[in-house]
Amino acid sequence: MSHQPPSPAEGNLLFPVFLKIDLLQILLVGGGYVGLEKLQALLKNNPNAKITLVGKTIRPEIRQLAALHPSVWLLEKGFDPDDLHGIDILILATDSRQTNACIRALAKQQGILTNVADTPELCDFYLGSTVKKGDLKIGISTNGKSPTFAKRFRELLEEGIPDEVDLLLHNLQQLRSTLHGDFQEKVKLLNAYTASLVAQAAPKPDEVP
Ligand SMILES: C[C@@]1(CC(=O)O)c2cc3[nH]c(cc4nc(cc5[nH]c(cc(n2)[C@H]1CCC(=O)O)[C@@](C)(CC(=O)O)[C@@H]5CCC(=O)O)C(CC(=O)O)=C4CCC(=O)O)c(CCC(=O)O)c3CC(=O)O
Ligand SMILES: NC(=O)C1=CN([C@@H]2O[C@H](COP(=O)(O)OP(=O)(O)OC[C@H]3O[C@@H](n4cnc5c(N)ncnc54)[C@H](O)[C@@H]3O)[C@@H](O)[C@H]2O)C=CC1
């Protein structure tokens, strides 16, 4: 059976961006297991992420983690619409779909980008699995199909990509800073210097004699 390549308008249409979460104010609502997971994910990517967590109850693991991060504020209380004031990004992780949907509707009116952990249809964005090797970061998305696949694929990449890749990035940055001349010239030179990185890759089918 021949495999038809998907058209550009099919499959994963999400647009990845890499956010400076130490400059943006994040509100996380829900102090349970999922609240903890999302807090861990944010802090793993940036220990200085600016996060306010509001929860009627707050798990002790969240308290322990927050105690290590001065940029995290915990408020043990029910959500209040005023909590949205000054918020750039919202993550909803309460155990009530209805509560999540109500808060999401309020946020939408205010143009706040929102993730609703239990309802992909209501999300403006999804969290992804991330691999970090120094300055290199890779985001993984399965379009909401299988978070477990994303997690396993992250583990594979974490093991498979050598830590030395960061040194390579550092050297390329040094080289980049020595280059002068016009944009086209720089692109040409940098492509020439890095050609060996892809030289070992398998030839494309149409390149096979
Ligand atoms: C749509 C999305 C919205 C969002 O949360 O942003 C979403 C939704 C849901 N997740 C559910 C379950 C699980 N989520 C995880 C784990 C992760 N989930 C993450 C992202 C996302 N999860 C977004 C899509 C990402 C994508 O496109 O792939 C990761 C990648 C990032 C992160 O959260 O940090 C992180 C792995 C991080 C890592 O380790 O690298 C595990 C595994 C585990 O915990 O071990 C399980 C259980 C096993 C399973 O279901 O696979 C359920 C069902 C809840 C229920 O059944 O009640 C829903 C709701 C639904 O699907 O309806
Ligand atoms: N996206 C994802 O990765 C996953 C999503 N989920 C979904 O996430 C949801 C939450 O699951 P858990 O964290 O395990 O539940 P949980 O019961 O451990 O935590 C729920 C938290 O929400 C708080 N809460 C409830 N109403 C509130 C309100 N009005 N204001 C402030 N806080 C409020 C509770 O006090 C508690 O801290 C479930 O609906 C589950 O289906 C579950 C697993 C993974």
From TrEMBL:
<keyword id="KW-0627">Porphyrin biosynthesis</keyword>
<dbReference type="InterPro" id="IPR028161">
    <property type="entry name" value="Met8-like"/>
</dbReference>
<dbReference type="GO" id="GO:0019354">
    <property type="term" value="P:siroheme biosynthetic process"/>
</dbReference>
<dbReference type="GO" id="GO:0004325">
    <property type="term" value="F:ferrochelatase activity"/>
</dbReference>
<keyword id="KW-0560">Oxidoreductase</keyword>
<keyword id="KW-0520">NAD</keyword>
<protein>
    <recommendedName>
        <fullName>precorrin-2 dehydrogenase</fullName>
        <ecNumber>1.3.1.76</ecNumber>
    </recommendedName>
</protein>
<dbReference type="GO" id="GO:0043115">
    <property type="term" value="F:precorrin-2 dehydrogenase activity"/>
</dbReference>
<comment type="pathway">
    <text>Porphyrin-containing compound metabolism; siroheme biosynthesis; sirohydrochlorin from precorrin-2: step 1/1.</text>
</comment>
<dbReference type="Pfam" id="PF14824">
    <property type="entry name" value="Sirohm_synth_M"/>
</dbReference>
<dbReference type="InterPro" id="IPR036291">
    <property type="entry name" value="NAD(P)-bd_dom_sf"/>
</dbReference>
<dbReference type="InterPro" id="IPR028281">
    <property type="entry name" value="Sirohaem_synthase_central"/>
</dbReference>
<feature type="domain" description="Siroheme synthase central">
    <location>
        <begin position="134"/>
        <end position="158"/>
    </location>
</feature>
<dbReference type="Pfam" id="PF13241">
    <property type="entry name" value="NAD_binding_7"/>
</dbReference>
<dbReference type="InterPro" id="IPR006367">
    <property type="entry name" value="Sirohaem_synthase_N"/>
</dbReference>
